[in-house]
Amino acid sequence: ELPPSEFMQVADSTWLVLSVVSNGREPSGCQATGVTKIARSVIAPLAEHHVSVLMLSTYQTDFILVRERDLPVVIHTLAGEFDIYREESGECVPVTCDDVSNGFLKPKPAASPTLHPVQSPQTRFCVLTVAPDTLPAIATMLIDVLFYSHSPPWDTGTDSQDLDSITFFSFSLIEGYISIVMDAETQKRFPSDLLLTSSTGELWRMVRIGGQPLGFDECGIVAQIAEPLAAADISAYYISTFNFDHALVPEEGIAEVIQLLQQRQESSR
C-alpha cells in the first residue's frame, strides 16, 4: 500500500519466514540462545547450499527469512533434520521433499564465505519487550525515538573500524508480540515499569558486520558470526537489516567475541 517513491528502496526478492521451534532435543547443557542455538542445524547447512538468509531475533524467538525462489533448496536441505510445516488458513500442513521436488536442482558446493569486517561500538544495548495493552502508554515516546531523535550519521564514514557509538533502535511486532532493542541511554527516557526484560537485566554489546551495505545475494554472512559463537557457547541476538547485519552479545563476553572473530578472519587470509 506504500506509494512509489524515489526515497524508498525495495529488494527485488520476495521473502518467506521460517520459524524454528525446539522439540526438546536440544542438549540440556547448552546455554547458548538466539542465533547460536540454530547455527549448526539451520544456518550453516543453508550457507553450504548457497541460500542467502536474513536473520531476525526477537525477545520471544528467532526467525529466518529466505527468498521464495530458494524454498525448494531450503526444504531439501533441512528435511533430514527437521519436520517442516507450512501454514495454510491458520493450519500447519506437513511439507515433504516430494512436495517441492519438481524443478529442484542440486546446489553446487559452496565456496568459503567471505569474512566481512566487523565493528564493535562502545554503546550498551537493552533487549526488551512490552505488554501489548501498555503499548499506547509509550506510543508517543516510540514515535519520537523512531523518527525524530536521531539525525542520520552522514558524517560518519562507513569504513570506520573503531566506532565509539552507533545509532540503533529496533522495534518488531510479530503476531502480537513486541520486541525492542535500544541503547541503555534511550531506555532511561521510557517508564521503567512498562519495559520488560530478563530477570538479570543484562546489557548487550553489538558487533556490526560489513564495511559497506551487504546486499542480499551473498550467502554465509550470518554463518560467519553464528558458527564461532556457537562453538564457544556464547549467546547472540542477531538482526539483519537492509544494509548491515548486527549481532548483540552479553556485555561481559564482548572481548572474547571480538577475539574469536579476529582469529577467524586472520586464519582465512
UniProtKB/TrEMBL annotation:
Keywords: Cytoplasm, Phosphoprotein, Ubl conjugation
GO cellular component: a single term: cytosol
Domain CASTOR ACT: start-end pairs: 11-78, 201-262
Listed Gene3D superfamilies: VC0802-like
Cytosolic arginine sensor for mTORC1 subunit 1/2 ACT-like domain location: 116-199
A single MF term (Gene Ontology): arginine binding
Highest taxon of source: Eukaryota
InterPro entries: ACT-like_dom_sf, CASTOR1_ACT-like, CASTOR_ACT_dom, CASTOR_fam, CASTOR_mTORC1
Example of a GO biological process term: negative regulation of TORC1 signaling
Subcellular location: Cytoplasm, Cytosol
Signal sequence range: none
Family that this chain belongs to: Belongs to the GATS family.
Assembly description: Forms homodimers and heterodimers with CASTOR2. Interacts with the GATOR2 complex which is composed of MIOS, SEC13, SEH1L, WDR24 and WDR59; the interaction is negatively regulated by arginine. Interacts with TM4SF5; the interaction is positively regulated by leucine and is negatively regulated by arginine.
Functional summary from the UniProt entry: Functions as an intracellular arginine sensor within the amino acid-sensing branch of the TORC1 signaling pathway. As a homodimer or a heterodimer with CASTOR2, binds and inhibits the GATOR subcomplex GATOR2 and thereby mTORC1. Binding of arginine to CASTOR1 allosterically disrupts the interaction of CASTOR1-containing dimers with GATOR2 which can in turn activate mTORC1 and the TORC1 signaling pathway.
The protein, known as: Cytosolic arginine sensor for mTORC1 subunit 1
